[in-house]
Amino acid sequence: MSDQSIGQHYLDDALKTFGEYKKLGEGAFAQISDEDFFKTIDDESNSIAVNMKHMAGNMLSRWTDFLTTDGEKPERNRDIEFVMLPGTSREDMLAYWEKGWNCTFEAVKPLKQEDLMRTVTIRGQDHTVIQAINRQLAHYAYHVGQIVYLAKHFQASAWQSLSVPRNRSAEFNAYLQEKMASPEHK
Length: 186
Known about the structure:
Blueprint: H1 6-29, H2 34-38, H3 48-63, H4 90-108, E1 119-122, E2 125-128, H5 129-155, H6 169-181
Antiparallel strand pairs: 1-2
């Protein structure tokens, strides 16, 4: 890693983090029923499906022609992202989620460290590529957190932890120490 530039390290880490958010969201909504997938907890809340629809719509807008066009595409209808249209299935939402993430990964993968200080626009505001990536990382973390929270709420005691389970930190730390001491790790 010492031969890697800080810029390339940042890009690699951004891709890894995007992937981790995608996996975390998928681990959450894989645990719930179709009914809970579309359920809201009150009239002002978004369902897991709506969060996914909004995220994918945002991804397609932000990352399509990322370096050359404004990240808020004229054809985007953000308001409809928060409306679940009749007949929309879980499979429809999963396909749209994949489409959004694929667009994200395909836009970020070819970036080089020389691109990081380039200027891109989002809603007419200038951002460096670093700022634009950070903006999206924060945005996706926010909504994935909502997805996890809702899935955990709906699953209650049946929830399978996606990180260190509650009251199991010592056990997890011991596992990590053992792993780090193993010959395979060294």
